[in-house]
Amino acid sequence: MMRSIRKLSTDEIPLFADIAINAYPGTTQNTKEFRERFVSNLLFIQEQEDSIDLFGLFLGDKLVGGMRVHYYQMNLFSKIVNIGGVGLVAVDLIHKKEKVAKDLICFFIEYFRERDVTLVSLYPFNPEFYKKMGFGPGTKINQYQVEPSSFPKADSKEGVRFLQPSDQQQILACYNRYALTKHGLFLKTDFDLNNIFKNPDNKVIGYFYNNQLEAYLVFNFEKSVDNFLINNIVVKELITETPTSLMKICGFLQNQADQIRRVIINTQDDSLDFLVQDARNGTDHLIPSVYHETNTSGTGVMYRIIQVRKFLENMNGFNFNNQSCLFKLTVVDSLYEETTSLIIQVDRGKLSFPEIEKFEFEITLDVAYFSSLFMGVIDPNRLYQYGKLKISEPAYLGRFNELFRNHERPFCLTAF
């Protein structure tokens, strides 16, 4: 039966909602009220949200799967580029193991290639599945559970207050200023912004200096099962532009020690130990010989470069550590059974594509690891040691590694 993928019409949204509810039973509720809210939210997205579209895969006239496609902008080493995102990939339970998810992702990749986008991203339901499809791991997330008293005190509470929906433009400006300083961050969309206050459980604290918001904290409470007077604070989003603004937020958290057991922070920053007095998470777990458990970590956001040369051209102006070399890059894409080869000249850190055949050495790797490498997640030395990167002349490995020395890892605060 013929397969087709297209944008869903409004009368098809309830069908997709049922597929998604069945596909993700752990994150949905089997109630009429939940389904009505879910359908209403999907209809709003499809009809009114410019940054998101819903697509479905059909077998003949039957909808058997779908996905949510996002249109984002991202800071790529201080240059703002377009990036595609995909979420809510859902398959009808009857039609699992029929490559519906694979066809949806292939369509997603081609959809953004046609729009001249060079990079896409997702959060995997199964990292192995998406790695086979050419998506490389991004920066890991770390979950800290810190006692409030371990946060540093602030010199005063001046400028700190609860934020309201009327402060949304200040939040947007604060976040996007911060995003312009951090490689990997997506600019915040109106949909992301509205969701902050749409969730009634969210509390938002902000710090103002000279009438400008310089920091904000989105959090909610996690209730204790054994004592209603003691709860946890779960940090949903934390943005601070200056050391002073960070201390103001820390001071707020420190002041909650009388009724808050732990502050739970999920962050791609693994250096929280240097901010708080005691980063141990309360498990008292020792890792041999004597390493105190401070956080748990996990893999999540993944990236895929979908147009190799154009992506590298987007890095025009980026300085590869003032290094110079001439090499052949070969990127293998097993999903499409294709190989891309380029001669790349790096002259005092600047990249170009000379029309010549000679080169000093050749680098060969899969598109998944190529994506992680050029996003700054991992360095060539480690990929070589793990057997994921091949080099024709190992003597040049050190020079090639220097191109990526101290590259900033990508941070991502956007859930999609």
UniProtKB/TrEMBL annotation:
Superkingdom, taxonomy of origin: Bacteria
Domain N-acetyltransferase: 3-158
One BP annotation, GO: aminoglycoside antibiotic catabolic process
Keywords from the UniProt entry: Acyltransferase, Transferase
InterPro entries on file: Acetyltransf_17 (IPR041380), Acetyltransferase_Eis (IPR051554), Acyl_CoA_acyltransferase (IPR016181), Eis_dom (IPR025559), GNAT_dom (IPR000182), SCP2_sterol-bd_dom_sf (IPR036527)
Class of this enzyme: transferase
EC number: 2.3.1.-
Any Pfam family: Acetyltransf_9
Molecular function per GO: aminoglycoside N-acetyltransferase activity
Transcription recorded as keyword: no
Gene3D superfamilies to which the protein is assigned, alphabetical: 3.40.630.30, SCP2 sterol-binding domain (3.30.1050.10)
Protein name as catalogued: GNAT family N-acetyltransferase
Species whose genome carries this gene: Fredinandcohnia quinoae
